[in-house]
Amino acid sequence: MKTDAFALRHLGPRESDLNHMFKTIGVESFEQLIYETIPDDIRLKKDLNLEPAMTEYEYSNHIQELGKKNKVFKSYIGLGYHPTIIPAVIQRNIFENPGWYTAYTPYQAEIAQGRLEAILNFQTTVIELSGMEIANASLLDEGTAAAEAMALLFDVRSRDQKKNNTNKFFVSEEILPQTLSVLQTRSTPIGVELVIGNHEKFNFSTEFFGAILQYPGKYGQVHDYSGFISKAKAQDIKVAVAADILSLVKLTSPGEMGADVVVGTSQRFGIPMGYGGPHAAFFATKEEYKRSMPGRIIGVTIDTNGNRALRMALQTREQHIKREKATSNICTAQVLLAVMAGMYAVYHGPKGLKYIADKVHASAVTLADALNKLGVYQTNTSFFDTIAVKANATKVKAIAEKQEVNFFYVDGETISISLNETTSVKDINQIISIFAEAVGKEYVAISQLVNESMVPENLERKSTFLQHEVFNNHHSESQLMRYIKKLERKDLSLNHSMISLGSCTMKLNAAAEMLPLSMANWNSIHPFAPIEQAEGYQIMLKKLEQQLNVVTGFQGTTLQPNSGAQGEYAGLMTIRAYHMSRGDHHRNVCLIPASAHGTNPASAAMAGMEIIVTKTMENGNIDVEDLREKAIQHASNLSCLMVTYPSTHGVFESAIREITKIIHDNGGLVYMDGANMNAQVGLTNPATIGADVCHLNLHKTFAIPHGGGGPGVGPICVNDKLVPFLPTNPIIPTGGSQAISAISAAPYGSALVCLISYGYITMLGAEGLKNATQYAILNANYMKTRLENHYPILYAGEMGRAAHEMILDCRAFEEKGIKVTDIAKRLMDYGFHAPTVSFPVAGTLMVEPTESEDLAELDRFCDAMISIRKEIEATTKEDTNNILRNAPHTLAMLTTDSWTFPYTREQAAFPLDYIAENKFWPTVRRVDEAYGDRNLVCSCAPIEAYM
Ligand SMILES: *Cc1c(COP(=O)(O)O)cnc(C)c1O
What we know:
Blueprint: H1 6-10, H2 18-25, H3 30-37, H4 56-67, E1 74-75, H5 88-95, H6 98-101, H7 113-130, E2 134-135, H8 142-157, E3 168-172, H9 177-190, E4 193-197, E5 208-215, H10 226-234, E6 238-243, E7 261-265, E8 281-285, E9 297-302, E10 308-313, H11 319-322, H12 335-373, E11 386-390, H13 393-402, E12 405-406, E13 408-411, E14 414-418, H14 425-439, H15 477-489, H16 511-514, H17 520-523, H18 535-552, E15 556-558, H19 564-581, E16 589-593, H20 599-606, E17 610-614, H21 624-633, E18 638-644, H22 656-665, E19 669-674, H23 686-689, E20 693-696, E21 716-718, H24 751-787, E22 793-794, E23 806-809, H25 820-829, E24 836-837, E25 844-847, H26 855-873, H27 891-894, H28 905-909, H29 929-934
Parallel strand pairs: 1-12, 3-4, 3-5, 5-6, 6-7, 16-17, 16-18, 18-19, 19-20
Antiparallel strand pairs: 2-8, 7-8, 9-10, 11-14, 13-14, 15-21, 20-21, 22-23, 23-25, 24-25
Helix pairs in contact: 2-24, 5-15, 7-12, 7-15, 8-9, 12-14, 13-14, 18-24, 19-20, 21-22, 24-26
The chain binds pyridoxal-5'-phosphate (PLP).
């Protein structure tokens, strides 16, 4: 046996455990288990056609070699991406720390207070710099944040009688090109007409409901937008501003100018460029729009004892509730990156940020000055960090690239140069020397920055920001290191225990997969760098696309979408483009089974589709006859079906081929939601079941960590019908021959974290991937067998097997006054994160162990669930002061002098033996959701403000 095989590290159960596990569930072998689980007509007959698996050591060498093919040039390209310095203390303690990056979205607030506080810091930073009232916990990138702003303004206009039949949206020609492309994609299907122009010539016609401006403009010009905004206001036109976060330290905020929404990226707050992402976009708006705001909001509330506690606010706005009425499908966001950007603000504080912004500005002024002396004319009358100069672009480019320097070449004679936090006097001299050579003049070095402002007096920021103590008290490394540790200790992540979240596939995020993210020649490339400088990336991304084609059985992949939901949207938009290319403009009906994840209908609504919900049968399966009837009824307008496989109930429905055939026979295509791909890889695939397109959640099935709620990568894989329509990018063309416009801002989405999935597939190979799936199915069925005598299991396949997850029905316990959330909270006392609560069925828990959990951990979790079942048995409806309803139990409760509960301290905190050795303490008692929603506070204002 090759003991250095990565598969042995990735898989939990040891070979010696298999017999016991097989015996428990009553099978002889994997073959039998898989035979009983997956319908035979969709089983793959051959292994995946992939290269042989690499060991961790081989992969490490391979990725370093490949990295050398990426050329890290000095980047002055700008356009929303800038070199930045990751504070080492943040890199080591957050970016490279599984305590932070393996956490789940903070739905279980009592064991997530650390990251909730870190995100609150991010929101506070955004609110104060943008000058707005509320902000969310991040969006996927600036381009899509701008699209969300447009969608929000379009949505709120419908409540305004004067505006509810307007559909024009003004876009300043100074908007970033990739943002414009995303706006084009997102506006068309919902019926918004974009009008692009010069904001100074805008006529403020009443036909417009909104406008978006870029601040500073894409090539650096800083405009005073207050006049524009007040004229727009007079016509009831709402204004969004896409702003550079660092410039806001120095400039009057859009909020102070009266903007309705402010969006942007926080990349330059210490997040590596990573060839396009991941980075956290921000979204800030006014209190009055809080119920329309996309994404998640962290808010302040109280716990059972009235102590301050944090949690996700206004959950009822989520797509799960709104479904086809949703205007946004955002689910996974960019939490880890938001945490880091917020921590960058904590690290620097207001003084440090001011120092950086002043230095960047002085660098730009100094450079403009020196170039002017060379006779190189600079066109921006007012600027922050970016200058636009007139020179022969061909000449400059040739000299600059020889010196490993990138500028942005606007046209033959205009060059845009963006300076940044890392720019030194030496760098400025290099730029001067390049231009001196280009214009044939003598080069005169500068020795220091000039202290002059190119920001007009009325645009100089006068308001203070980040006065809260958190931004002013952590400026020694010891303090910050301990602050980060203090927060980390409040959170339960995969480095403590299994997180068995059904549908979310919280598997191992192996260190060997993560390490390359810290390498400079992977993380320091600008997404718009010339393609020949990113050869390593081009090879890696192509190979990953190829691997995903093999895994899905499809012909083409785009890595552009930054989340599963964005993949859904991308897939539906390619389907839409396909129908249109055939003249079938009317095909816009999308069938969706009732059990679908909320993002499905939300994505379909965003793609302008009419949603028809199809029935689910008693046993959880799709009602094939109902589906057939509706497909036939809508045949002339049928666009597609969205189907999750195995189903959201964790079952391989045997009718799947019939289902996909019905859709094809009626002129539609089939979109497969790939969130459950962990049950398919190597055993079956979307092409075989008859799908035309699927998204994959690389942050579920392919080992990208959840990061506390992001980043994500949601590529779509498509068959040859749809390959021509894969999305492009306006600067670095990607996609098919009839590509749709951009789905996200960067050409390859979050390219940096694609390395993780590439490492995962490359180190597992065909056999390892197949084994991962088989072990995932084994682990799930083992737990099912252990738990089914204690909890009714909803739904199973025809031969009684679960796929890779199962649903425990907890609804009957309501007779004893026990709700499913009581079980979720009680699990915390046992050291576990709850499984998925109330999805896809209210009142249930959906458990997905994944292949990475070993037998002992599965047994501990089952023991905990069985013990909780006994606790439920021992309660009565009248007994409201019980161990479940009081859960979780904090250390403070246990150690107070008076213990008044009708059970012992030991029962409360140490109900099973294994717990004592590795006790996890929730830091707050149960949080009060309603209180927080009634008193929405989403920044770290002083305590008195909300108590
Ligand atoms: C996770 C999930 C999604 C959404 O993916 P995100 O990356 O969070 O946008 C969609 N469908 C299903 C079934 C999922 O489990």
